[in-house]
Specification:
The complex is a heterodimer of chains A (112) and B (115).
Chain A: E1 9-13, E2 18-23, E3 33-38, E4 45-50, E5 55-56, E6 61-64, E7 70-75, E8 84-90, E9 92-93, E10 98-99, E11 106-111
Parallel strand pairs in A: 1-11
Antiparallel strand pairs in A: 2-7, 3-4, 3-8, 5-6, 6-7, 8-11, 9-10
Chain B: E1 5-7, E2 10-13, E3 19-24, E4 31-37, E5 43-50, E6 53-57, E7 65-68, E8 75-79, E9 88-95, E10 105-106, E11 110-114
Parallel strand pairs in B: 2-11
Antiparallel strand pairs in B: 1-3, 3-8, 4-5, 4-9, 5-6, 7-8, 9-10, 9-11
Classes of the chains: A mainly beta (112), B mainly beta (115).
Amino acid sequence: DAKTTQPPSMDCAEGRAANLPCNHSTISGNEYVYWYRQIHSQGPQYIIHGLKNNETNEMASLIITEDRKSSTLILPHATLRDTAVYYCIVRVAGSGTYKYIFGTGTRLKVLA
Amino acid sequence: EPEVTQTPSHQVTQMGQEVILRCVPISNHLYFYWYRQILGQKVEFLVSFYNNEISEKSEIFDDQFSVERPDGSNFTLKIRSTKLEDSAMYFCASSAGGTGAYEQYFGPGTRLTVT
């Protein structure tokens, strides 16, 4: 099972910041949090990942709480093209590699 | 920007037939994965592959499935005898590393329809 829980859906006005929360209370000390999004049935698109510190790239910012039990993905200026399902993923260690266990994600709808 | 490619984009096959789904991972990546997504459901891990062998497989990846890296660029998923329930989007992914902070990059997917 996925190690994360997310709200099933959110709306955001175009141009405003979209803040997508994720709970991962059972995360282990060396496990990373990854965020992906999926637009329609396209392949999941990598957004950002982090371990302990807050991270920022050209797409988004990731805020991780000090206890690492939750995180928030921030899209600073949401556009209509950001409408997608957003997945928060804690990688699961396998035999020599890591695999992603996807949950149901948050369906973000950006409104004009 | 390098990307994972998959062919075909859509494959229609009859139940019981064999299908091969093809993927070209990002060129300097060493770890390869297949996931699938049944319509309206979650993305599910199938298999990971490194150094020409399977690293891990899920319960879904039974004897009907196999993976291969036939040359230096392609990575294939074969389903020997397709069933109706194999109808899904199949996504290939690759990463530069298997441990550490390496993200996986996904291809656009192949929609498999079994009739």
